[in-house]
Design goal:
Number of strands: 9
CATH class: Alpha Beta
Bound molecules: NADP nicotinamide-adenine-dinucleotide phosphate
CATH superfamily: NAD(P)-binding Rossmann-like Domain
Order of helices and strands: EHEHEHEEHEHEHEHHHEH
Low-confidence stretches: none
Helix content: 40-55%
Shape: globular
Number of domains: 1
Strand content: 15-25%
Distance between the termini: 61 Å
Strand order of the largest sheet: 3-2-1-4-6-7-9
Structural class: alpha/beta
Mean pLDDT: 96
Length: 278
């Protein structure tokens, strides 16, 4: 017996992980609504997925448009079972190199846009007493490294909000999952990474040449986005999906390093921490 046909709303299906997700969702027999940003991608999506699909225009910077996007999706298929916040880009550069406008844009796309879309989708999920919100976070949402602090700021914000959201919506039967991939072989480093306009040469010699490092990563990432997509589709069928879902050995390494650094902090500072009590 086939389980209920689900309706998915996935942001950023023009390529990369979003496109792999669309493929797996479509293959599973579910309905896929994908967001795109131009007419060409809309046509291609509808050609690739001729039935049980719909492409809608959405730029995550345009929070005012989100209510209409969700209304259009609900009108087309009557419900949204799974929202996947996948679309995004990465601002890379040393913290001091960013301008305020560059950082604000990163936060607008990685965090404010995602928050707004969730806010628009939740009323219908709460009414139905079910739903699943899957956030494409990152290994960088767990641990940040040099040159990645600006991108990490958006993913850490997403992680914090999602951790609270999971507790807030649990009584309504709604689940939240943070997918945390390490490097996946998509075109992210080719087209979705932007660098700060300013380059402070001292950092390059004292810390790292992050522009060169990013260029080298492109095309050699160890993670297969098709496999990640397949796992996400399987996870969506679980009664109790995990809050955190790490992908790739790199993310496991980051989790382990984070745990041991927290353990060290407790060992070194617990006495001081508790000493401030009245
Ligand atoms: N690849 C990795 O190594 C990796 C690792 C961890 C996490 N992630 C996360 O995975 C997600 C997908 O990335 P990817 O690797 O699949 O990269 P990708 O192939 O470059 O895809 C990025 C997608 O996001 C869309 N997008 C970018 N800015 C947008 C905006 N302002 N409004 C709406 N859509 C926008 C793009 O649409 P256009 O075609 O219109 O630009 C594209 O569909 C991102 O959230 C990324 O942070 C990636």
């Amino acid at each position: 017996m086939r389980t209920e046909q689900k309706v998915w709303l996935v942001t950023g299906v023009s390529g990369g992980l979003g496109k792999e997700l669309a493929k797996k969702i479509h293959e599973s027999g579910d309905i896929i609504i994908g967001t795109v940003r131009n007419e060409e991608d809309k046509k291609r999506f509808e050609l690739d997925f001729p039935e049980r699909s719909k492409a809608v225009f959405l730029d995550l910077a345009d929070t005012a448009a989100m209510s209409a996007v969700v209304a259009e999706s609900l009108k087309a298929f009557g419900k949204i079972d799974v929202l996947v916040n996948n679309a995004g880009y990465g601002l890379f550069g040393f913290v001091e190199e960013a301008t305020e406008a560059e950082l604000r844009h990163q936060i607008d796309i990685s965090f404010i846009g995602v928050w707004k879309l969730i806010k628009e989708v939740l009323p219908s999920m709460r009414k139905r007493g079910k739903g699943h919100i899957i956030q494409i976070s990152s290994r960088v949402g767990i641990a940040a490294g040099t040159g990645g602090g600006l991108y990490a700021a958006g993913k850490f914000a997403l992680e914090g909000m999602s951790e609270a959201l999971a507790q807030e919506v649990a009584p309504f039967g709604i689940k939240v999952t943070l997918a945390e991939p390490g490097p996946l072989r998509t075109d992210f480093f080719g087209r979705s990474v932007v660098f700060t306009a300013e380059e402070i040469p001292e950092y390059k010699s004292a810390v790292a040449d992050i522009r060169e490092r990013s260029r080298k990563v492109n095309g050699t990432q160890g993670g297969d986005p098709a496999k990640v997509a397949a796992v996400i589709v399987e996870i969506s069928k679980l009664e109790n999906p995990p809050l955190r879902l790490p992908f790739t050995q790199a993310t496991i390494d980051s989790l382990e390093q984070k745990i041991s650094s927290f353990q060290q902090i407790i060992a070194d500072w617990k006495e001081v921490a508790v000493s401030v009590a009245y």
